[in-house]
Specification:
alpha/beta; 21% strand
């Protein structure tokens, strides 16, 4: 029942991926591009027009797909249309076509991040893998960095990407050094998907999971190099079991340094020739800072890393007062994309994510809203939450499997909250200082232990547009049990009397009051209330 409930009434997706083209100017040895008979094409202007509402309501737009983004002749028009809203924009590129004109375009359009796919720092190995020159790409990136300095902007950020394979894992330390040398402080190690291709077989390309001893050796050495150079190494979820034991990480502080401190720090970096540090020290938008801080903590919690308490002690948990959570009997696919993200391919077809070719509708034949709320999409979401997820999800290198905890009469963020089990629709993925944010409405589920009261811990943060106060109501099995009003970043406790119920499970709905939205228009980017814990009490 819960699967059916959270497969319906889903808010518009905050993350939208738009495939600009399927054409590419490279033929990499691990990529099936050009070998599987697919039709090549570009996103048309008419399809772009049909995405207007989706673009305007998005928090994040990824303007790329399975091709080289800059090959679409209308890419400038696409990029500027995506920039009309308030979403952050990112693209993936192989870096070969970032000339001076395109570099200006990236800066002018407000692109927040470009992910540059470079699978080796060794020029000879790079040529074997990507069949082109590494020097040209590095020159393009250095020119972009200099243009950013001249125009006094930290955007777009450059994030390097490397597909981790058996034939290049030994070059991961070199990739980290290359990342730092081009003024970037972030490297993503992406999982290798083994396609049935001649080059994959002839070169004996394998996943790191097939060479674990060698992978552990180079991952351990790479982590040391990354720590020394201040580069964040983000390893694909399926590879994390190969990583060395993590050390303690500190929760990012919400208190931003003053402008004088930023200037002094940047000046020190400049005097020492620390180009990467100079770029990293430039102040970023507050909203993006909060998002990234939440991402760091989310990774820490997933990896089991102990997190240092925040300055106000807000990260302290109450788990010591409750029994340890118990693992459930069956594994689930760890994925929230069908609720929070969508991919529109160049033909206007709606795919649930970038890893699935399943067509759920076409924006050239129907509105996106009708597709998103339709029976086909709802059925896909419900199947993903079952013990028999869709075939493409079972072997997904991006999502992976996990054992969620059994349903209990309490939930604490970062301890036993799992989407599709304890949590339903309406939640933001990021966790910040032990708080997970709701959207307009959010569902959670508790085991009915017969206790007569519900205790919630809720918090807030100061939004520039909406202030600090959060108001709303609480419903249990669709019966309104009370209201909440929060005006503090620290957790505030609320206790509600529960109506009698013989149901084995209680579905709690947190409804934020958005009646004070400026202009009487619903802003789907707005956050609701911060949730820390829920428990049934006597």
């Amino acid at each position: 029942m819960f699967a059916r409930l959270i497969s319906a009434d889903v808010p518009p997706p905050p993350c939208v991926q738009i495939e600009t083209t399927t054409r590419c100017n490279l033929r990499c040895i691990m990529c099936p591009k050009g070998t599987n008979g697919e039709t090549m094409g570009d996103l048309s202007a008419s399809t772009l027009e049909n995405l207007g509402g989706l673009i305007d309501n998005a928090w994040e737009i990824r303007a790329h797909g399975f091709g080289e983004t800059f090959l679409n002749r209308d890419f400038e028009k696409i990029l500027r249309r995506c920039g009309d809203g308030q979403a952050t924009i990112s693209i993936v590129t192989n870096g070969t076509l970032i000339d001076e004109r395109r570099a200006h375009l990236l800066i002018d359009a407000g692109v927040e991040t470009i992910y540059v796919s470079i699978d080796a720092a060794d020029p000879e190995l790079f040529r074997v893998i990507r069949k082109t020159s590494l020097k040209k790409i590095v020159d393009n990136l250095l020119r972009l960095q200099m243009m950013k300095l001249e125009r006094r902007t930290p955007y777009p950020r450059i994030v390097m990407q490397m597909v981790g394979m058996s034939n290049n894992i030994h070059d991961l330390p070199g990739m980290i050094r290359l990342t730092a040398s081009v003024g970037s402080n972030e490297l993503n190690l992406v999982a290798f998907t083994e396609f049935d291709m001649e080059t994959v077989h002839s070169l004996k390309l394998r996943s790191l999971l097939d060479c674990p001893d060698e992978a552990r050796r180079w991952l351990a050495e790479s982590q040391v190099v990354a720590d020394e150079l201040g580069v964040h190494l983000d390893v694909a979820h399926v590879y994390r079991e190969l990583m060395p034991p993590p050390r303690e990480v500190h929760a990012p502080a919400l208190v931003r340094p003053g402008p004088l401190a930023l200037v002094r720090k940047a000046f020190a970096h400049a005097l020492s020739g620390d180009f990467a540090g100079l770029l990293a020290g430039i102040d970023r938008k507050a909203r993006l800072g909060v998002t990234r801080a939440g991402s760091v903590l989310r990774h820490a919690i997933e990896w089991g890393v102990p997190t240092a308490p925040a300055r106000d002690g807000a990260a302290a948990t109450l788990s010591a007062l409750r029994p340890a959570p118990r693992l459930g009997p069956s594994p689930k696919v760890r994925c929230t994309d069908p609720w929070n993200a969508v991919m529109i391919n160049y033909k206007g077809e709606v795919n649930p994510c970038c890893m699935s070719q399943r067509v759920l509708g076409n924006v050239n034949d129907s509105t996106f809203e009708a597709i998103w709320d339709g029976d086909v999409y709802r059925g896909f979401r419900e199947q993903l939450l079952s013990d028999e997820p869709p075939p493409e999800c079972r072997n997904c290198a991006k999502a992976g499997w996990h054992h969620p905890f059994e349903l209990d009469d309490w939930i604490e963020v970062g301890v036993n909250d799992a989407f599709g089990v304890q949590l339903g629709t309406g939640w933001c993925e990021a966790i910040l200082n032990g708080v997970r944010w709701t959207r307009e409405q959010a569902l959670l589920r508790l085991r009915n232990s017969g206790k007569r009261r519900l205790r919630l811990e809720l918090a807030s943060w100061e939004d520039p547009r909406y202030g600090l106060e959060r108001r709303g109501s609480v419903r249990v099995n669709e019966v309104r049990v009370g209201d909440f009003e929060v005006a503090s970043r620290n957790a505030t406790q609320f206790t509600y009397d529960l109506p009698p119920s013989d149901a084995s499970e209680l579905v709690v709905r947190l409804v934020s009051d958005w009646t004070d939205t400026p202009g009487d228009a619903i802003d789907v980017r707005r956050l609701g209330v911060g949730f820390r814990s829920a428990a049934l009490v006597e």
